[in-house]
């Protein structure tokens, strides 16, 4: 395992991690500011944090209540 | 000008619901996921293990043109899904909640209302496509070999016409139905149906929009724009404009009937 971590070229992987982090942070900020969401807020909190990559996207598409 | 006001309203709304942030980011992820994961496939297989000693897996070396097609493949499936889902309520939702009645009660021309929404969506989709494919281009140049900026820009332009058609289909169904779920379902169903029809009648429908990516691959490999590609693009644009006009007529009839 240690070997693999060393062989990873971080210049390639870092941008992906940064994009995922931005998605999570923006989704969480939006969630705290939102007055109401489709479904309970705590549920979306866990979806955004725990469902890798698509969690924030699912929140943006289905979580925000439109009005 | 009325149209500009409507257009600006849409653009600011995209800021408010963070679409300007998450849609481009998702397109970047979709465009780079295959180039990166294919590059690391040998290491991934090795670390997963379970292979007997001495197993040699010959993985093909991908040419840059093939990798571009991988990125487009992701955008064609998941990217189209994202576009469909984020646009499913753009008019349908407003009609449902009554916002569109508030807007259209004023002397707002239907064509302004619809074309402004269409143009705003296109601005978002084209910007996301541009950023996503440039990210893919960056990775291709690092990992697979040289691909000229010229050819990637051509790919973006021609592929953008296909996404324009997807947006137009979605706008069209938006004016017909008030339920966003139905709009999304019908948009996806239409695109799938189009690809099936194109495959069945492939000898007749040479310029079907679904063939666009096929001609694009040819273009990246040979470096020259075939006349088939140009005609397919023209057909795609004509269908998009046709759908837009149909959407304007449909909304006019629907709203007058109410």
TrEMBL record, chain A:
GO cellular component annotations of the record: plasma membrane
Location(s) in or outside the cell: Cell membrane
UniProt keyword Cell membrane, yes or no: yes
Keywords, sorted A to Z: Cell membrane, Membrane, Transmembrane, Transmembrane helix
Bilayer-spanning residue ranges: 7-29, 41-62
Presence of the UniProt keyword Nucleotide-binding in the record: no
Membrane disposition: Multi-pass membrane protein
Residue ranges of domain Cardiolipin synthase N-terminal in the record: 22-64
Annotated InterPro entries: CLS_N
Name by which UniProt lists this protein: Transcriptional regulator
Organism of derivation: Oceanobacillus arenosus
Lineage, top ranks: Bacteria, Bacillati, Bacillota, Bacilli, Bacillales
TrEMBL record, chain B:
An example molecular function term from Gene Ontology annotations: ABC-type transporter activity
Entry keyword annotation includes GTP-binding: no
Transmembrane segments: 20-41, 72-93, 114-140, 152-173, 185-209, 229-251
Organism of origin: Oceanobacillus arenosus
Cellular component annotations (GO), alphabetically ordered: plasma membrane
Keyword Transmembrane among UniProt keywords: yes
Range of residues in the leader sequence: none
Record's protein name: ABC transporter permease
Keywords: Membrane, Transmembrane, Transmembrane helix
């Amino acid at each position: 395992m240690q070997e693999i971590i060393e062989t990873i070229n971080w210049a390639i992987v870092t941008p992906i991690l940064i994009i995922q982090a931005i998605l999570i942070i923006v989704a969480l900020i939006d969630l705290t500011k939102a007055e109401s969401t489709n479904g309970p807020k705590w549920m979306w909190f866990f979806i955004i944090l725990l469902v890798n990559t698509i969690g924030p996207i699912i929140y943006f598409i289905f979580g925000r209540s439109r009005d | 000008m009325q149209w500009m006001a409507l257009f600006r309203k849409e653009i600011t709304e995209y800021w408010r619901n963070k679409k300007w942030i998450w849609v481009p980011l998702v397109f970047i992820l979709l465009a780079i996921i295959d180039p990166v994961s294919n590059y690391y496939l040998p290491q991934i297989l090795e670390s997963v293990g379970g292979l007997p000693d001495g197993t040699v897996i010959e993985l093909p070396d991908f040419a840059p043109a093939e990798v571009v097609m991988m990125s487009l493949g992701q955008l064609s499936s998941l990217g189209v899904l994202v576009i469909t889902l984020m646009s499913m309520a753009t008019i349908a939702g407003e009609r449902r909640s009554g916002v569109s009645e508030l807007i259209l009660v004023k002397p707002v021309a239907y064509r302004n209302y619809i074309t402004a929404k269409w143009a705003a969506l296109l601005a978002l989709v084209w910007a996301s496509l541009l950023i996503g494919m440039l990210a893919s281009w960056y990775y291709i140049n690092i990992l697979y070999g040289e691909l000229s900026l010229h050819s990637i820009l051509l790919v973006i332009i021609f592929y953008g016409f296909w996404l324009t058609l997807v947006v137009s289909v979605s706008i069209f169904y938006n004016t017909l139905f008030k339920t966003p779920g139905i709009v999304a379902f019908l948009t996806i169903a239409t695109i799938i149906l189009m690809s099936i029809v194109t495959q069945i009648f492939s000898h007749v429908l040479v310029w079907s929009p679904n063939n666009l990516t096929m001609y694009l691959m040819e273009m990246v490999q040979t470096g020259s724009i075939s006349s088939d590609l140009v005609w397919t693009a023209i057909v795609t644009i004509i269908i998009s404009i046709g759908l837009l006009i149909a959407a304007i007529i449909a909304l006019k009839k629907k709203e007058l009937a109410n």
